Amino acid sequence: MQQVLVALVPAVLAHAWYFGPGIFIQITLACGFAVLFEGIMLRLRKRPVKLFLSDYSAVVTGVLFALCMPSLAPWWVSATGMLFAVVIAKQLYGGLGFNMFNPAMVGFAAVIIAFPTELSQWLAPRALSPGLPGLSETMQAILTGSLPAAQSWDALTQATPLDSLRTGVQEGLLITEIHDAAIFGDFGGIGWEWIANWYLIGGLWLVYKRVISWHVPLAVLATVFLVATPPWLLGPDINPSPLQHIFSGALVMCAFFIATDPVSGPATLRGKLLFGAGITVLTLAIRRFGAFPDGVAFAVLLMNLCVPLIDRYTTPRAYGHRK
Known about the structure:
The protein is mainly alpha-helical. The chain has helices at residues 2-19, 22-44, 49-53, 57-66, 75-88, 103-114, 135-144, 153-156, 161-170, 175-178, 192-208, 215-234, 242-246, 251-258, 269-289, 296-314.
């Protein structure tokens, strides 16, 4: 768990550079609530609090959840998300090792449904912003849910690249016309594509250190090319490129840091490949046909449901036994 946190540091720093210091406050809040709820539940369940808190699983859940949040999301969003993530999705299932669903994604799915307005207020990247909020303004927005009188949400926030892409397609615009917006960079959105690069580097470090296996990340990213390339080649004016999908949204973070959760994911190697491929197919389907611009959280949770079935049919035959 500690190595996962270390691997996330570059992406966190990049997030702070492009979108301001709010990410540090979001991480602090989410981790604080996660540890608090974990400690309360461990005491209620008469489990050794210090022993289970020292595994850092609650902290990892808090950090991953915070990285999905807008920088100025109010504190009660983190409190609600960690309540669902730690109490409902983890401790009520028996604690670490028994949870069926990825806790961070349960928390995020809960808050994006409960607080759609707060989850849509994303700051414009530094290059396009008239001035990112300072630490005091950020603290006020997070603790009170409102900005200083001299600032407005419309002036500071704007649609994410996936939001812009979705809206443009619904309005009948061509992909090339949509990409004329200042928010888009070379592949994804300004700032977002660099954050994705740092997730990629941190994830490859985890693969190199054998903290995670390569099967799920490879399946997630390779399936993007397998699924998104044919429609893009046939209609590049109406279908995003595979690189657009990869460097926009949370697919890279999902590939290395979320879908690789050893508890809620498959145990077999073939199962990991199927699991990663299924997450990508569902994510792209939700992006294209669903009600949300990015479907990573829902895709992960739906595939978590399939894990027992995947393990059942991908378990290799024991040596010496007939199939």
